[in-house]
Amino acid sequence: MNGAEMQEQHDEPIVEAYEWIETSRLSELVANFARVHILISIFDGDPERWLKFILTEGTSEEREHDLPFVMDLKERLTAEPLLIEDMRRIVREFSAMFTRDPLTA
Fold first, then answer.
1. I need a labelling partner for 76 at 20 to 30 A (CA). Which of 14, 15, 22, 39 fits?
2. What span, in angstroms and rounded, lies between the C-alpha atoms of 55 and 6?
């Protein structure tokens, strides 16, 4: 590649920049997705098992951040009894997109 070709190539933007977007709530979304994955893969979709773990063996961080998630989930399950199955499907589909050995359960 000669100098002119290199210069022409550098005239095109490498990335496109946008105005600042508030992302503080995005980290909460990512954390909640991780919590759903933990619920499904470690506790087999059983919020009671996770709750018992947090209360008996959990760290202060888990009590502060994960406990409210589990409590809200338990309350939500009364109105949406199929929510855990929806979460299983979502985690399975997401896993299938990015891994060679997707989750099967």
1. 22
2. 61
Cα–chain center distance at 60: 21
Please give the Cα distance from 38 to 25 (Å, whole number).
20
Cβ atoms within 10 Å, residue 70 = 22
- The whole model's pTM is what? 0.69
CB burial class (10 A; 0-12, 13-18, 19+) of residue 41? middle
| CA 66 to each of CA 6, 17, 59: distance values in angstroms, whole numbers, following the listed order | 51, 35, 10
Burial of 91 (0-12, 13-18, 19+ CB in 10 A): buried
**What mean pLDDT do residues 99-103 have?**
67
Angle, CA 78 vertex, CA 60 and CA 96 arms, to 5°: 70
